[in-house]
Amino acid sequence: MPNEDVTEFLPLSPPVFHVMVSLADGDRHGYAIIKEVAERTGGVERLGAGTLYAIIKRLLADGLVVEVSAARSVGKNAERRRYYRLTALGRRVAIAEAERLERAVAAARSSRLLARLRQA
Hints:
The chain has 120 residues and is mostly helical. The chain has four helices and three strands.
């Protein structure tokens, strides 16, 4: 699968992208993904449970995430929690989307639609 064309998955919707970014630095269960996305976006992007699990279902079907063991979970909800991890393909897709967005922002800056970043 290393040669699979990631562009077939692009563009990602903002909620899908944020879920994938949330998983980029480690395995998370659903509620942790919801919290992390809200924190990372300053509350601008808020995922409901239904939206999140629809996204997870699609990402699983596309082979972009996998469910991993929740053996490290403790507490009353430990058995119910499902953890998710980006696959290698999922990581490549998330990177490709981040690069696509970076190019879009660069184009907006070059046309003076957005202010250029100040050099420190």
